[in-house]
Amino acid sequence: MFNQYQRFFSFLLFIALLAAAFPSQSSAQRRVANELKLDLLIKGGLVIDGSMRAPIKTDVGIRGERIVFIGNSARKNVTAARTLDAKGMIVAPGFIDPHTHALEDLSNPKRNANENYLMQGVTTVVTGNDGDGPFRVAETLDKWQRQGIGINAALLVGHGAVRREAMGSGDAQPSIEQLAWMKNLIGQAMNEGAFGMSTGLFYAPGSFAKTEEVIELAKVVAGYGGIYDTHMRDEGSYSIGLLGSVRETIRIGREAGIPVHISHIKALGTEVWGQSRPVVRLIRQARAKGIKVTANQYPYTASGTNVTAALVPRWAEAGGNAELLKRIRDPQIRSRLLVEMEANLKRRNGAEAILITRSRNQELVGKTLGAIAKERNKSPVETALEIVEGGGASIASFNMSESDIEYFMKQPFVMTGSDGSSGHPRKYGTFPRKLREYVFGKKLITLPFAIRASSALTAETFRIPERGLLKAGYFADVIVFDPKTVADRATYEQPEKLATGMRFVVVNGRIGVDEGKYTGILAGRALRKISPQIK
Ligand SMILES: [Zn+2]
After folding, report:
1. How far apart are CA 383 and CA 410, in angstroms?
2. Alpha helices in 195-240 (DSSP H)
3. pLDDT in tens, 382-403
4. What is the C-alpha separation between 321 and 204, in angstroms, rounded?
């Protein structure tokens, strides 16, 4: 039996043995506690964080889906499962594209990687623009989440889709009941996670809506903290004119109390060339009065649309495509159409400025409307009507001046947006092209300016939280690119060539592009807007 002393001494002995056996235990424990364990360390690149802060050579650490560390990793006790060498590279927030037509690709299991965007460094797209976005938002977002998507995607509810659902494709004005129905559909879409509402007031059926209708619907979106995004009624001299359209957009912002966003801002056609100055003046005045007005832009002199939208007057589209075809076949209406189309063709800088990029009739692709008309020995507008009757065609329409493009690009409220559509190189090249041509080539804008316009500004404008900046705590959407090789390769002749220069593209902490190659993973998320307290 131990007596009390023996017990006490054996206790002391035990403590002494313990201290001898693990002399450095406590300091090792301290070291473990200070150790920063990372999944990814992006080392030694020139970090441009999206905020216009001066570029700094440093490291970016990622754990799970988040950025957890930005700084000199050598000074810290960092261990990383993988280190990406970014020496000589630019490290930036993943680009965010506010205007795309990626909805179909994202929903298609064969194209849902959105490799065309990944290779441009785009890690988030907004889609549902031009009034086309679905009003069943949850259904689309759920599908994307279930099937997987290669990049993050946010949705806008489309005014056109809502109008069609509530009152068909006609040119009528809504009854009180129909207006209430549209408001209801929009409220539901916002509840389901839409980031705002888009309109396509240039297109049918959006063109049939009066400003007051749009204001009433935009008020609903404002209540959810959403944005109003618009393809304006007129970007040229078709109806109320470019300046009239900018004024209409500003009025919608003022009267609905909503941030407004002008998509693919441009001066379309020689008649309005040079109007980038008065447009910017109007926007600056509105912003000075507290109306949130912003815009996006793609760096190409050709827009992308279709023959019908570009040349056929809207009244002929009332009631949908079958009605349009009936009107085309009516000899009296046909002759009236041809007269108006002649004027529209002039607004588009003539038949040589219209290039067919996609059509069921493959023989047309790659030719101008002028060339096809000559082959057929018919006038260009007659030829255009034949094309519409034959199922239509996508076009690249060369209608912008370089000087307007540059003036818009320099504005601090203009962000990069591809408006990517099939057949136009902008779908594959917009973001790298802006860097190659306007930052490194012409030196029109600085690299930090271009990166902010392609990331943080867009996240802020569309209220996409915790993305768009390289910042500890933010989602790890990070790109690493080579400033010497970053470039677009898509052309009007070969619009589907992937861009070059992206060494690594990280989406939610996972590597989507590794050493310049797509890894095959689907790391994107269907983003849902979390609305503030609803009024
Ligand atoms: Zn558009």
Report:
1. 39
2. 211-223
3. 999 999 999 999 999 999 999 9
4. 10
The reported pTM is 0.92
Spatial separation of the C-alpha atoms in residues 348 and 416, rounded to whole Å = 24
Ligand 1 geometric centre to CA of 130 (Å): 5
Structure tokens at 422: 């099939």
| 200 in Cβ contact with 159 (< 8 Å) | yes
β-partners of residue 305 are 395
Q: pLDDT tens-digit profile of 489-535? A: 999 999 999 999 999 999 999 999 999 999 999 999 999 999 775 54
Alpha carbon of 387 to those of 327, 346, 395, 509: distances in Å?
Answer: 15, 18, 11, 47
Q: Which residues pair with 505 in a beta bridge?
A: 479, 513
Residue 211, phi then psi, degrees to nearest 5: -55, -40
Q: How wide is the angle at C-alpha 444 spanned by C-alphas 441 and 446, nearest 5°?
A: 90
Q: How far apart are CA 503 and CA 479, in angstroms?
A: 8
Q: How far is 435 from 439, CA to CA, in rounded Å? A: 5
Helix (H) or strand (E) run with residue 384 in it: helix 380-389
Residues 212, 210: Cα–Cα separation, whole Å: 5
Distance of CA 472 from the midpoint of ligand 1 (Å):
35
Those residues whose beta carbon sits under 5 angstroms from the ion ligand 1 are 130, 231
Structure tokens given for 343:
């004027």
